[in-house]
Amino acid sequence: MNVKDCMSHDVKVCAPTDTLREAAQTMKEIDAGLLPVGENDRLIGMITDRDIAVRGVAEGKGPDTPIREAMSKEVLYCYDDEEISGAAEKMSSCQLRRLPVLNRQKRLVGILSLGDLARADGHCAGTALHGASQPGGQHVQ
Q1: Of the ranges 57-61, 64-68, 125-129, 130-134, which one carries the lowest mean pLDDT score?
Q2: Residue 72 in 3-state DSSP?
Q3: CA-CA distance, 100 to 36, in Å (whole number)?
Q4: d(CA 124, CA 92)
Q5: Which of 19, 48, 67, 92 is 20 to 30 A off residue 57, Cα-Cα?
Q6: In 3-state terms, what secondary structure has residue 47?
């Protein structure tokens, strides 16, 4: 099964100039802990609820701080035509619970989450969850 067959297609994207407050409000509205950050039709980062807490609030940045100052700039992703097993391995090895999905033109087309994997293939979900649940590791997205 390919990633495009089980990913979430409806993705809300924020701009790097949006504020941490706007990102948090959007996350609350859509019940998500992560938003892709796009600029000029390209994915340039990710902002997570953890980024807002650790790179924002904990560093004394206020709610009107631009997302660019707290987002994860290193974006790990998979392609929509990849097998889900490969994406699950990437999620496991990088300790990620969600992975942006790009098409081969490098345009954002979706998000693959542990929940998406669980609904599609329990074994792949277990692989991803095993790595994502390990303690420690560098926070990237």
Answers
A1: 130-134
A2: strand
A3: 8
A4: 10
A5: 92
A6: strand
- The two structure tokens encoding residue 43: 């994915």
Residue ranges of the alpha helices (H) in the chain?
Answer: 20-30, 49-51, 84-93, 114-120, 122-132
Q: What strands, in cross-sheet order, belong to the sheet with 108-113?
A: 78-79, 98-102, 108-113
Residue with tokens 């087309």: 109
pLDDT confidence tier of residue 34, bands split at 50, 70 and 90: very high
- Which token pair is 140? 């990237």
DSSP 52-118: IIIIIGGGT--TTSBGGGTSB-S---EETTSBHHHHHHHHHHTT-SEEEEE-TT--EEEEEEHHHHH
Q: Average pLDDT for residues 22-51, to the nearest whole number?
A: 94
